[in-house]
DNA sequence: CGAATTTGACCCGCGC
DNA sequence: GCGCGGGTCAAATTCG
């Protein structure tokens, strides 16, 4: 981070400051994977059902979402593809301390389920990356490739956390590459990219306009490396008092879906890469595509 | 000096 | 074709 040490709790701009948050943990991933040329687009929509509230844009998923009281809803049963790396970072810390999930809730934000167009860039960047996308020159590599190729939508995984800090530590290093104002929202959306040059994972972070205390994080892509390790303890602090919390249902009882098994305590202190928690017990190991794992 | 953030400009898809 | 909105780039800036 500019000015030093994003992994320190005292990030200059409060960036990596150890967040005081409660993981609301909401996931409303909507990934779309497109193959090449004439390949069909496979849509996967997953999210954790909670009882807090549902605000699901019907068109965003293309499917009917039913609240099965706290369960994990898999709209597109391609389970083998579920597993997550990104999420691990967030979840594992909490997983080590089940209590941290007291405030778990689900919020499906329309913004999170933003449709296609928003995902294109990622692909573009993936393909062209270094190339200046805006280079108007004739054979602009970016353009040529982009047009010639089929856009490959990265897998996306989103969830909500209640936090004072927008950008939470998750075991990976991120570099901010952009920020944009979000329509109909007083809060801007920040764009981050994994600092690993070979890793094309990106993530967007924004605050919910409905509940400013909530941060919506959307990961896109899969890490091609291991995390740098989870931050020292204290990452996730149980949220105790907030209007939001009042509506929330304890994770243990309401969100503990059969498919969402949390790892045993300690697993977190092992420093590790999400894989450690992905095993059969991995929390998100069951909901995020294997490819997203490290 | 290097690394990371800021921020305006640019690109692209989409709806009208 | 045009405007809008989302996403990305990259020069400038900042700071340890």
Automatic annotation (TrEMBL):
Key words, A-Z: DNA-binding, Nucleus, Transcription, Transcription regulation
Protein's UniProt keywords contain Transport: no
Bias (Polar residues): 265-278
SUPFAM superfamilies: WRKY DNA-binding domain
Region spans: Disordered: 111-155, 265-294
Compartments where located: Nucleus
Pfam short name (any one): WRKY
UniProt domain WRKY: residue ranges: 163-228
Main location: nucleus
Biased composition, class Basic residues, residue ranges: 144-154
PANTHER family cross-referenced by the UniProt entry: WRKY TRANSCRIPTION FACTOR 57-RELATED, WRKY TRANSCRIPTION FACTOR PROTEIN 1-RELATED
Record-given protein name: WRKY domain-containing protein
Originating organism: Buddleja alternifolia
